[in-house]
Amino acid sequence: MAQRLALQRLLSLPTRGLLAPHGRAFGTSAGRRNTFNVQDGSDFQDRVVNSPKPVVVDFHAQWCGPCKILGPRLEKLVAKLEGKVLMAKVDIDDHTDLAIEYEV
């Protein structure tokens, strides 16, 4: 329920356009175009902070049990929104600096 409310709030935000910066495609398969893995701090800045669309950021870890439950549920919700919201996945073990910066 809380996830849906958060996504509804995100959808109410104004968007500045429909294309990602530099014409990049998000994701690798048809079902996951709106979900992508963050590669580094600069990628996070380009694809999340500067995104013309709202972005849900999933900070997760391979060892985190709740993350394994929440992640797929968030992906399904984002997929149902058909491109109105994007989802960035940040592995906190690989990107500790981002986790610290955003107090995760």
Automatic annotation (TrEMBL):
This is THIOM protein. Residues 14-104 form the Thioredoxin domain. Belongs to the thioredoxin family. InterPro entries: Thioredoxin-like_sf, Thioredoxin_CS, Thioredoxin_domain. One of its GO terms (biological process) is cell redox homeostasis. Signal peptide: none annotated. GO terms for cellular component: mitochondrion. It comes from the Eukaryota. Pfam families: Thioredoxin.
